[in-house]
Design a protein that fits this description.
Helix content: 40-55%
Oligomer: single chain
CATH class of the largest domain: Mainly Alpha
Mean pLDDT: 87
Distance between the termini: 31 Å
Largest sheet: 4 strands, antiparallel
CATH architecture of the largest domain: Orthogonal Bundle
Low-confidence stretches: 1-26
Number of strands: 12
Strand order of the largest sheet: 8-4-10-9
Structural class: alpha+beta
Number of domains: 3
Number of helices: 17
């Protein structure tokens, strides 16, 4: 179920802009209507092409025609979107706005300039941004609706064991190679001074803004490290719940046009300006800066870590003791440096001890998995028990740091077992149960919601046969 909507998130909206000029020269046929939303022929073709490209890249084949699969996925998205509106599901408009800016900036970087992008797409930049926003909003509503449905599904240990026993032993899932490792991290020793410098920069900017010397939006475009900088730091209107707490607390105190004092959040330091407020929606812009360091400031903790590693190698100090005494990472230092997923669980407020993991697949390293790709690049060169040289990295919030890692164990690829892979089997069992219950929920919604499919598309190979309500 995870892939049902995720494959539509970025690729489709990029393709939509690239081929947008075709929509101006030909009438786009509506091939399906779900609730109050329509599915166009061009959207089906674009999504089908995307699916074919994805299949080729993954070496995957399907017995179903790509066009039929694309139409069904688009109808599913429309159904979830319409149901989300009926159920008054809320999404983070601020997060949508940030993703829009990331996509727009990526396209600008690829084309070389805004002018080049506008020329290629035959659309003004504000039309491109609006297209992205509308599509991402719909997709986010759909995703949130689906997550709301499956979040109600729970599983107990007995169900995990029954799931495991139901699998033919020759068909047990293969768990890819996993890594267990430990770390010692250090922030630059002058972090306080770096934060102070960042505050002073923002205080100076605020002075320029309130005295009328420079516009807020101009400084945001020039200096902010947030994706919203391209549009002068402006964010989409959102309720206070859509912002992190320090940001929300400061925003709530502002009057229209007023600029906040410097606000520190987990993302860095902000200046915030309230543009307007309509009901519970706050429309604002901000400037985000993070502490930065010169090379000498980075070299100091690298030298400290290098000295620690030498002591460990001489058996004058154990890695576990060094981590407890010197590491700046609050999650791993108390475990003797052993790396867990606690930082990721905390980031998403998933405080459940049974979700703790200390084994990481290759795909767990990177933006989506929560562990730094720098960690993987270091441990893949090590043998079990070896310690890396100090290297620069960043934490989940983008703060710069220095660390060393120790490879504790490499777990070879193997057939899943209850003893070694309970958490992953539990997730598989839960996913199976969620899929079953989601299908049952979907059948009821298809039956109750208005759905029309153009006659020439009704004979498609749909996985859910209930989509076709009219045979003529």
């Amino acid at each position: 179920m995870k892939k049902i909507l995720s494959i539509l998130i970025c690729t489709l909206i990029v393709v939509s802009v690239v081929v947008a000029e075709k929509r101006f020269v030909m009438l786009d046929k509506v091939v399906a209507v779900v609730g109050n939303s329509s599915v166009s022929y061009s959207d089906v073709q674009q999504t089908a092409q995307m699916l074919l490209e994805q299949r080729r890249s993954e070496g995957y084949t399907s017995d179903r025609p790509a066009q039929d699969e694309a139409l069904e996925e688009l109808m599913l998205q429309k159904l979830l979107y319409n149901q989300a509106l009926l159920d008054s599901i809320e999404i983070s408009n601020g997060e949508v706005a940030q993703r829009v800016e990331q996509q727009v900036q990526s396209m600008i970087d690829r084309e070389g300039s805004i002018t080049a992008l506008e020329k290629k797409s035959h659309m003004a930049i504000y039309h491109i941004r609006d297209l992205f926003r509308r599509q991402l909003e719909e997709q986010t509503y759909a995703q949130t609706m689906q997550q709301t449905v499956v979040s109600k599904t729970k599983i107990v240990p007995g169900e995990v064991e029954r799931f495991y026993n139901s699998i033919d032993k020759d068909s047990l899932p293969i768990i890819a190679e996993q890594y267990q490792y430990a770390q010692i991290t250090m922030f630059p020793k002058n972090m306080k001074e770096a934060k102070l410098r960042t505050r002073e920069r923002l205080i100076e900017m605020r002075e320029r803004i309130v005295t009328g010397k420079t516009r807020f939006a101009t400084l945001a475009r020039m200096y902010s490290v947030d994706g919203s900088s391209i549009q002068g730091g402006e964010l989409e209107p959102a309720p206070l719940a859509g912002f992190v707490k320090p940001f929300a607390d400061a925003l709530a105190e502002l009057k229209e046009g007023q600029v906040s004092e410097v606000v520190e959040s987990e993302f860095g330091f902000h200046l915030i300006q309230l543009i307007d407020k309509k009901g519970q929606l706050y429309h604002c812009r901000h400037i985000l800066l993070r502490p930065t360091f010169v090379m000498d400031e980075i070299l100091a903790p690298m030298r400290d870590l290098d000295s620690l590693v030498n002591l460990i190698k001489k058996d004058s100090l154990s890695f576990e003791e060094a981590a407890k005494k010197h590491s700046d990472d609050k999650h791993s230092k108390q475990n003797g440096g052993v790396v867990t997923n606690h930082d990721l669980l905390e980031r998403y407020s998933a405080y459940d001890a049974k979700l703790t993991a200390t084994k990481f697949l290759k795909e767990d390293f990177g933006a989506m998995g929560g562990k730094s790709i720098d960690d993987y690049n270091a441990i893949r060169r090590l043998r079990e028990g070896e310690i890396s040289a100090p290297f620069r990295s960043t934490d989940m919030m983008g703060n710069e740091l220095v660390k060393v890692v120790k490879l504790l164990k490499v777990i070879p690829a193997h057939n899943a077992s209850l003893e070694e892979d309970y958490l992953r089997l539990e997730q598989m069992a839960l996913s199976q149960k969620q899929e079953k219950e989601f299908r049952e929920w979907l059948d009821k919604k298809i039956a109750s919601m208005y759905i029309y499919i153009a006659p020439e598309f009704r004979n498609g190979e749909f996985s859910n046969k209930n989509w076709v309500k009219y045979s003529k």
